[in-house]
Amino acid sequence: MPVVTRRRALASMAAIAALGALPATSSAATAATRTPLRLTMVNLMPWAGNGPHGQPIGALIELCAQLATLSGVPITPMPVPYGRAPHMLTGGGADLTLLIDTSAKGGAAIDYVGTVDIVVFGRSGFRFQRMEDLFGKTVGTLRHSGYSPELEAEARIHKHAFDSYDQGVRMLQAGRLDVVLGVGDSIEYALGKAAGQVSPRYPLMHGRVALYANPQIDAATIAALQAACRQLRQKRVMDELLHRPQRR
């Protein structure tokens, strides 16, 4: 082989070797600069809200940070009113959402991060053992929620929506509601700021805090998020975040 040809061959081999190293470097750079996925959650404490200086706070804000770290997927949390979350997912305004209600349309629940209790309570003296105990009563629920299909379908129970659990507690104490139904952690947070006596909280069912995803998200990202969800669930991270005393 002539010297010039040999040099050209060596140069070509070096170039090929350099090109072979580019994909890993390019992938790392892409991961570092990837556009964060937008994740919506309800803007009700202790789940999510704004601190005294406008900064996002709450259990799901911190959980999102851990979800991003464990999965390697950058995530931007977006607290929104309860009814907007599933619509933002279907309308292109979000990539992910965390919901207890499993009726979100247009997305698939890929996994869940923890469980919650759905409970009912009333003013002092209220007792609950079965659904029939609610017949003839006005039961307040968070607007757009759907925790109990059986209750929703029962015509003998009067339903009334409220916009926040704080409002629901006030309506109960004012006599506008007989019973409040909702997520136990949210109710305890609202009751911690309210005066007056109420009944014990009676468990109605359990719910999962599920992660829904836009179907267009790639399979590798979904798998990474699922693995992170399992770790969060196994470590009971959501429970620990919800029960921190600084929530109030």
UniProtKB/TrEMBL annotation:
Position of the signal peptide: 1-31
Ranges in coiled-coil conformation: none
PROSITE patterns: TAT
PANTHER family per UniProt: AMINO-ACID-BINDING PROTEIN YXEM-RELATED, MEMBRANE-BOUND LYTIC MUREIN TRANSGLYCOSYLASE F
Biological source species: Duganella margarita
Protein name, entry field: Transporter substrate-binding domain-containing protein
Keywords: Signal
Cited InterPro entries: TAT_signal
